[in-house]
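TICKET: design request
STATUS: open
ATTACHED STRUCTURE:
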């Protein structure tokens, strides 16, 4: 099966960091990845109808010389080219990919956020990936957001690092490392990081490069302070913190607070009480922040606290709206696992384990960019349900398959004299490939 010519330029983000033979093998693997019912290396080879030995394709992930980070930087550059913006919003989170087997590199027990709750923790055996994505808007509907993965790190728990003789790095260390690397790659690009409390806590904020704006969450008992007083000219160490301020939970105990109705996540409405202040965190007193504490008057969400380092340019409504843009990363995790099978390849060695899953995430981002910014018209709709207004990722994948099939059909079945019975079989095969998404 041939890849459609409109999608081939998207794969240049991989080709520029590979040798020509490796890039040729990789393009054949991508063709198999798009059409294989199960995304193992052998399944991709069978779907792509390749001519090389299967070991040549296994070496693409296991031992070929190319860098996943360089591909991620190329994906970010492609986003800046296709979706030019004055400021680029980043979002980060971690996700668990279940794996089977004791000999797979980097596996361990990790908390599954999808199956766990505040009072109950579910652990699963597999890989845990820390992902940094860039947020883009749909060209056809600016209110619709997508999260395009650009950098990834494989997190190893303490037992795994101890077994491998490696120094342990927390998930927050990996996220700060990726933010620093992306800032060094694009030092003149304005970046704004959106993250939950795990990646935007006070101790993490002081480690994030000051050039990157941050919007995150705080606890209801966070310690807040005024800015430090001006220098007095006397000898001695200068005071780093000012007067202590009320905690976010105490801010909401004031009378006469403003009430508002917020529409976030495209369809959700929230009726809340809001208290705001400008201050500094006790553990990160160098960066001024704008804190918004909200109390939900309906539902069971209770009290939530958010902050941003963009003190002069933010209001409560705009800050909460920006923070809601981090939700598409959860959709990215779901669609990549569900439709691209990033957890299915049965690779064991270190290089393959570190490259295969990021390749699946990058492939997800390239398909979204192709459908939204390269293809001139929206694709086909495979499944329709009440309230559906846009193409889902399954529709995007079905559109890419349909375009690939159309070009392959034009190349192979263009000879005159095809019988109506054979044409009918071809049409049925086209319909089955669309439903396979």
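STATUS: resolved
RESOLUTION: sequence designed for all positions
ATTACHED SEQUENCE:
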């Amino acid at each position: 099966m041939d890849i459609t010519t409109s999608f081939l330029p998207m794969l240049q983000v991989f080709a520029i960091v590979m040798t020509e033979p490796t890039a040729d093998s990789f393009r054949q693997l991508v063709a198999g990845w798009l059409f294989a019912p199960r995304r193992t290396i052998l399944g991709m080879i069978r779907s792509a109808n390749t001519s090389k030995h299967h070991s040549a394709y296994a070496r693409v992930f296991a031992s070929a010389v190319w860098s996943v980070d360089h591909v991620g930087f190329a994906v970010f550059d492609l986003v800046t080219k296709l979706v030019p913006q004055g400021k680029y919003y980043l979002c980060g989170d971690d996700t668990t990919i279940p794996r089977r087997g004791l000999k797979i590199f980097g596996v361990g027990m990790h908390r599954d956020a999808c199956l766990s709750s505040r009072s109950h923790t579910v652990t699963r055996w597999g890989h845990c990936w820390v992902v940094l994505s860039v947020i883009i808007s749909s060209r056809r509907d600016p209110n619709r957001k997508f999260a395009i993965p650009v950098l990834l790190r494989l997190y190893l728990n303490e037992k795994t690092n101890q077994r491998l003789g490696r120094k342990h790095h927390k998930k927050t260390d990996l996220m700060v490392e990726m933010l620093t690397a992306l800032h060094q790659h694009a030092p003149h690009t304005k970046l704004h990081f959106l993250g939950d409390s795990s990646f935007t806590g006070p101790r993490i904020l002081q480690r994030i490069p000051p050039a990157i704006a941050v919007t995150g969450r705080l606890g209801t008992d966070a310690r807040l302070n005024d800015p430090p007083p001006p220098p007095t000219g006397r000898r001695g160490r200068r005071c780093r913190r000012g007067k202590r301020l009320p905690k976010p939970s105490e801010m909401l105990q004031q009378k006469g607070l403003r009430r508002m109705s917020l529409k976030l996540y495209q369809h959700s409405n929230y009726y809340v009480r809001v208290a705001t202040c400008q201050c500094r965190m006790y553990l990160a007193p160098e960066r001024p922040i704008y804190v918004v504490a909200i109390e939900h008057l309906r539902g069971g969400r209770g009290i939530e606290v958010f902050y941003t380092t963009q003190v002069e340019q933010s209001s409560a409504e705009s800050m909460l709206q920006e923070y809601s843009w981090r939700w598409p990363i959860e959709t990215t995790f779901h669609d990549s696992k569900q439709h691209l099978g990033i957890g299915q390849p049965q690779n064991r060695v270190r290089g393959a384990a570190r490259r295969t899953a990021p390749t699946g995430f990058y492939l997800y981002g390239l398909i979204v960019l192709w459908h939204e910014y390269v293809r001139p018209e929206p694709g086909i709709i495979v499944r329709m349900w009440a309230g559906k207004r846009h193409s889902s990722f399954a529709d995007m994948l079905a559109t890419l398959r349909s375009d690939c099939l159309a070009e392959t059909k034009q190349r192979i079945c263009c000879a005159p004299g095809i019988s109506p019975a054979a044409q009918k079989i071809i049409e049925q095969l086209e319909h089955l490939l669309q439903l396979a998404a």
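CLOSING REMARK: The chain is about 40% helix and 20% strand. The first strand starts at residue 88 and ends at 98.
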